[in-house]
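Translate sequence into structure tokens.
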Amino acid sequence: MHEDFGTTLNRGFKTWTRNLNICIPFILNFFVSLIVYVFFFGLMGFLLFASNTGSIADPSTLPPAELYKMLWEGFRDNMAISVLAIIVFSLLGMFLQAFFTAGAIGMAKKASETGDTVLSDMFRSGSKNAFRLFLTSLLVTMMLLAGIVFIVPGALTIGDLSGLIMNPEAVVEGMGALAIGILVWGIYSLTINIVLSLAPYALVIDELDPLDALKTGYRFFKKNKLDVFLIWIITVGLALANGLLGELLGSENTLISGITYIIPLLVLQPLTAVLWTRLYLAGEERELYNHYDLLSDPDGF
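Result follows.
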């Protein structure tokens, strides 16, 4: 069914308020990823600080020069294991995020189509789509990294950086070209993120393979440029507003700082997942519940 943008926002918000449990995948992702990265930093700490001494040294008791020396020696002596650990834990983190993101999209899809969703929808959608969404994330990451070509000309023409290190006010040849390259890379990355915003949702909702999901997300963007851009602006705007609020009010208030930290998990991420999902379903003219009628039915609860 076709909806105008205002209707999508309104009914998407109603769907979210009726299904606050859509925040569960994001909360689980946070805590599971936290556990994984605690193991990662523990392993890296052991490799960097205990390689030569045979026992873990306390970094706080070391002078800066000795600390840097120990870090370098630990990394040098365990370079292969360190690089392998970084790659493995990065991929594991991406896969976990793909599982829970797919689960959240599955819950948002079920809620948008029927009015309600349960936690089993998360596990069902996550298990069916996690690996394909993980591959899609890898493809998008490679596309973003491909933008490094924009800084190559500046990097090749830049002069000796040793003078800049000794004198930060010194003019270094090629810095202007490098700065322009970085700016262009940033614009390129931003464009990719906006144009392919709907690719994960297309993949999970229609159970597509990674390449078809990217093509479908791009096709959807071309047909609905303004709506996609507005949802993206709303998503980024809410995140920036929350961050700014935390900086202004939470810098000296632990309670406010904690609240602004958990708001993305409890509110912003599930709400925007529902909005993106409903936008895609409406744009593809899928059958959606009229949530005004649904909410007025006491049996719906």
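Note: Residues 5-111+120-294 form one domain.
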